[in-house]
Amino acid sequence: MASHFSLLIVLVVACFVSLISPAVSQTCSTQNILTTQKTPFQTCLDLPVLDSYLHYTYNATNSSLSIAFVATPARPSGWVAWAINPTGTGMAGSQAFVALRSGPGVAPVVKTYNISSYSTLVEGRLAFDFWDLRAEALTGNRVVIHTSVKVPAGEDSVNQVWQIGGNVTNGRIGIHPFTPSNLKSTAVLRFSGSDAPASAPGGGASTTPGQAGGPGNAGSMTTSVNFGVSLGVLVLLGSIFIL
């Protein structure tokens, strides 16, 4: 009887762990991130480093790119950034949107930085027009940067740069770490074409700050399936235990 009870406890714990795991291993397709107009983005992309994600829609009519960049600061009071570099592929010369918190639990704010060099991190005007700029806090300390930017007419791609940092002092961001992942956070973002990332699933209800796309509601379909399987296992084990 005691051995049956011990087995039941172990399996119950394993079942609850399986309920948590989908949120931890989320991808951009499990995040319910919406545009300012509360519609799904056309495309989402799992960025290759820094556990970051980009949702975006390209509008050829007015040569604009609407984006939502999702990342987690290195510290609760840290910062995340997404940028376009009009002249190169690295950080120097990039036109950056930086979301930061002044302390744990404080709502993030987003600022613009014209980064002329790796050692100069001060606010500045950007080289292109942008609008609908805002930051959103998600569960799990994740932060989303929302904005729309004007891109050169006729172009089919831009050089993007993204980053996460760990310290903010008196509203000023500190230099990010120089780990291999931090140094590899650049890529060409293509608006369309055969080599563009696959489109994100359509649909999705309107979300509110602190809930959209965070670990709390990521992978809801997978979680439901796991819950059903786990419940079935518990019922079966309960029957065995009673016997």
Task: Tell me about this structure.
By secondary structure, this protein is of the alpha+beta class. Helix content is 21%, strand content 29%. The chain has helices at 2-24, 180-183, 220-242; strands spanning 43-46, 53-59, 64-71, 79-84, 95-100, 109-114, 130-137, 143-150, 157-165, 168-169, 172-173, 186-190. Helix 1 (2-24) packs antiparallel against helix 3 (220-242). It is globular, with a radius of gyration of 21 Å.
Give the structural class: alpha+beta
Radius of gyration: 21 Å
Characterize the biggest β-sheet.
5 strands, antiparallel
State the separation between the terminal residues, measured CA to CA.
Answer: 10 Å
Helix percent band: 10-25%
How many helices? The count is 3
Low-confidence regions: 4-25, 193-243
- The averaged pLDDT comes out at 73
Large-scale geometry: globular
User: Which strand order spans the largest sheet, edge to edge or round the barrel?
Assistant: 1-2-3-8-7
Total beta strand runs: 12
Query: What are the secondary-structure elements, in order, as H or E?
Result: HEEEEEEEEEEEHEH
Q: What percent of residues are in strands?
A: 25-35%
Give a brief rundown of this model.
With 243 residues, the protein is of the alpha+beta class. The protein has helices at residues 2-24, 180-183, 220-242, and strands at 43-46, 53-59, 64-71, 79-84, 95-100, 109-114, 130-137, 143-150, 157-165, 168-169, 172-173, 186-190.
Q: Any key phrases for this structure?
A:
alpha+beta; disordered C terminus; single chain; 12 strands; five-stranded antiparallel beta sheet; 243 residues
Secondary structure layout:
Elements: H1 2-24, E1 43-46, E2 53-59, E3 64-71, E4 79-84, E5 95-100, E6 109-114, E7 130-137, E8 143-150, E9 157-165, E10 168-169, E11 172-173, H2 180-183, E12 186-190, H3 220-242
Antiparallel strand pairs: 1-2, 2-3, 3-8, 4-5, 4-9, 5-6, 7-8, 9-12, 10-11
Helix pairs in contact: 1-3
